[in-house]
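Holo model, 2,5-dihydroxybenzoic acid. Inputs:
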Amino acid sequence: MEAVAKTPEREAFYRRIDGENLSALWNVMGDLITPEPKSACRPHLWKFDAVRAYMIEAGKLITAKEAERRVLILENPGLRGQSKVTTSLYAGIQLVLPGDVAPAHRHSQSALRFILDGKGAFTTVAGEKTLMAPGDFVITPSMAWHDHGNETSEPMFWLDGLDIPMVQFFDASFAEGSNEDRQKITKPAGDSFARYGRNLLPIDEKRSSKTSPIFNYPYSHSREALEQARVREEWDACHGLKLKFANPETGDFAMPTIGTFIQLLPKGFKTARYRSTDATVFTAIEGKGRTRIGDKTFEWGPRDLFVVPSWHWVTHEADEDAVLFSFSDRAVQQKLDLFREDRGNA
Ligand code: GTQ
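Output:
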């Protein structure tokens, strides 16, 4: 849209109304209502090994207890200083060292963990403790008590994804700490999965939470699902083979505010171009390849992380069998009738 011409009379008028906390729509219309998404969010890739080295340094500088959470935030280069990986989402890398206690707290923000490195550290969520391994997708629902620890002899690194900017946008943040570093464990290990993860659901149960009752989706299961489906060789041109993590009670996304996905790109596969309105954070679990986002190409291997902004054309190419985990705000956009995608001609 073309800028409205300036005249001395108009300028004087703008100054007068400015004092009354008023402004003229016709000067800002084109920035507010754009013909297609225009985002400050930029494509970017973080090499895990580089982040890992800084995390080890952070591990010597501060305990998990003092930090509350020992996390380095992945800041989108177009959104620096805002603790955002995309306009609506937060991402960070968390390190839990042997003996660490990340004390119990709870907050309105929902969190996902995607385990990158290390095996056997735990998180306790709403009274159930779960041990985690690489590729596991773990959920902390809104307002659920959670504390993390590591009783193994090796460090654990995971990707944190939270809806912090969304909650900030709505001014809806509540948080509290606990007097106990570790919450009481009130449920046997595996309880949630046994009740909800086996295509069985407790009858007559009134759950009000919109978050999946399964809070650890183990990688062994995700990988097996991909491997089983691959034998049919029915590849999606844009995605290879892509599955969403689902809430078994509703079939909706596992989290109310964040959509999470796992996808297999077989060796040599090159996807057709695709774009969507949900800016997406990706990390590789297995394999290596490259992703083209707009006019930039990023080479990735295991544990590297990259972000695709809204409405940027993206193609992936795998040099060997590759598995990608990703998350976005699609869960919200779809509920609000805002989600759009474009499969090119595929
Ligand atoms: O583990 O509870 O990356 O509360 C940011 C905020 C992790 C957590 C983050 C959090 C957490």
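The domain at 44-342 is CATH 2.60.120.10 (Jelly Rolls). The CA atoms of residues 104 and 180 lie 7 Å apart.
Archived with the compound record.
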